[in-house]
Automatic annotation (TrEMBL):
GO terms for biological process: regulation of cell shape. Belongs to the gluconeogenesis factor family. GO terms for cellular component: cytoplasm. This is Putative gluconeogenesis factor. It comes from the Bacteria. InterPro entries: CofD, CofD-like_dom_sf, Gluconeogen_factor. Required for morphogenesis under gluconeogenic growth conditions. It comes from Nocardia speluncae. The keyword Cytoplasm applies. The gene is yvcK.
Length: 354
């Protein structure tokens, strides 16, 4: 693997933008920071639970929890006292119980500076982060979902509002929306996407951390326009509640349904999650809706449902640096006509379809 001072762009490595939220984005950033110092994290701002939910309701600031985690993932010293303090959560039963120091710091700086992006940059300076953390919108957003399986008639959907409620619903999520509708994108986030060498989306909570980025018009337009290499990382397992029972194929279908004009170059799938044979062919067909090829590689932390930072970094490193393949029939004037299925990061097996 190449070090952080090599690669396209400058001696500090490629310009990489990672989109997501929560633990999924933390995993991606932990991997990408091994490849480059030029990292921008674009983070969801719809959390309405815990400390983040309390602060957004009481102060009207964007929920800081996922933003704080991204800052910690990029901190110069991930185990240093400053990083641990920013991540520290107060105990007890008083007014501070459950709040993390970093959440309070971000909320306070946002009020003092009048700008959540400036607040993030200031905490980034404090932690000596390599790169930048940006909200997908400077407004706190809400998620609303159509969920089936909650009524006697399984065909009837109920509207569920709130990220926590959507993430924990016992029903089946069919579609999600953002409130307010068509929210403004963070200008710095859109600019980072357009100027990137590579854009990585996922893993993470599919309906509440991954798909929402495609529902912000300014971000979706930037993702469509950018010339960056675009990689979608699939989750290792379905998430109880939000995507219970979802196959890898189903994850790709619902993302495509929410953003039909969105395309990626590669879909990175852990080789241990999808057996060889027909199931991989189904994933390849679903990836075709995103005009993508599929790469199967060992990226899991053995025996867990977490991505291994070193393995994920190695897989992304090779994908970002290799030339875009000229696969016959893969793209014809923007239309998908075939699919390239890659096993591991070595040889290929071609799976063509119409």
């Amino acid at each position: 693997m190449n070090g952080p001072d090599t690669g396209p762009g400058t001696r500090h490595g490629p310009e990489v933008v990672a989109l997501g939220g929560g633990h999924g984005l933390y995993a991606t950033l932990s991997a990408v920071r091994r490849l480059t110092r030029r990292v921008s994290a674009v983070v969801t701002v719809a959390d309405d639970g815990g400390s983040s939910g309390r602060l957004r309701r009481e102060l009207g600031v964007p929920p800081p929890g996922d933003l704080r985690m991204a800052l910690a993932a990029l901190a110069a010293d991930a185990d240093g006292v400053l990083t641990r303090t920013v991540q520290h959560r107060f105990g007890g039963t008083g007014a501070l119980a459950g709040h993390s120091v970093g959440n309070l710091l971000l909320a306070g700086l946002t009020e003092v500076l009048g700008d959540p992006v400036a607040a993030l940059d200031k905490v980034g300076e404090l932690l000596g982060i390599s790169g930048r953390v940006l909200p997908m919108s400077t407004l706190p957003l809400d998620i609303e979902a159509d969920v089936s399986g909650l009524e006697t008639d399984p065909r009837v959907s109920r509207c569920i509002r709130g990220q926590v409620a959507v993430a924990t619903t016992p029903g089946k999520v069919r579609r999600v929306r953002l409130l307010p509708a068509d929210p403004p994108a963070c200008a710095e986030a859109a600019a980072a996407i357009e100027g990137a060498d590579a854009v990585v989306l996922g893993p993470g909570s599919w309906f509440t951390s991954v798909i929402p980025h495609l529902l912000v018009p300014g971000l979706r337009d930037a993702l469509v326009r950018t010339r960056a290499r675009k990689v979608l990382i699939l989750n290792l397992v379905a998430q109880p509640g939000e995507t219970a029972g979802f196959s890898a194929e189903r994850h790709l279908h619902v993302l495509s349904q929410h953003a039909p004009d969105f395309a990626v170059d590669e879909v990175l799938v852990d080789s241990g999650c999808v057996p060889e044979g027909r199931e991989r062919e189904h994933v390849a067909r679903a990836a075709g809706q995103l005009r993508a090829r599929v790469v199967f590689s060992d990226v899991a932390d053995a025996g867990t449902a977490r991505h291994d930072a070193g393995k994920l970094a190695a897989a992304l490193d090779q994908l970002i640096r290799e030339p875009r393949p000229a696969v016959p029939g893969l793209r014809v004037e923007g239309r998908h006509m075939g699919q390239d299925v890659r096993s591991g990061l070595g040889g290929k097996e071609h799976f063509s379809w119409r």
